[in-house]
Amino acid sequence: MYLEQRVEQLEQLTVDHGRQIESIAKGLAELTIDVKSNRQETLRGFEEVRQQFKQVDQRFDQVDQRFEQVDQRFEQVDRRFEQVDQRFEQVDRRFDQVEEQFKAVHAQLADIRQVQTLILTILQEKLK
User: Fold this and answer.
1) What pTM does this model have?
2) Distance between first and last Cα of the chain
3) Where are the alpha helices (DSSP H) in the chain?
4) Stretch 78-90: mean pLDDT, rounded?
């Protein structure tokens, strides 16, 4: 009888161990599925992040191109301003020349008036 009880206990233990093994196997299978699912979701998330980084890189490239265009336009504007400055300097020099010529003409007119006055004075004296 002792043996039969012992065998029965062993059978019961074996059944319990079998249930535990099945439970562990089921849990391991679920865990494996969860891990694979999470890994796939993580990989998808990483791919989305990569795509977003690519988009950000493309936007930065576009912004860089725009800055280069703006820089080029500023350089063109600077060159045009330099040309305008040179033209203003030329105009200033011409005005200075005209002013000098005007002063010379004014001085000549003053000389002509003096000569005229002198001639009139001489003529008036001769007419007296």
Assistant:
1) 0.50
2) 184
3) 2-127
4) 97
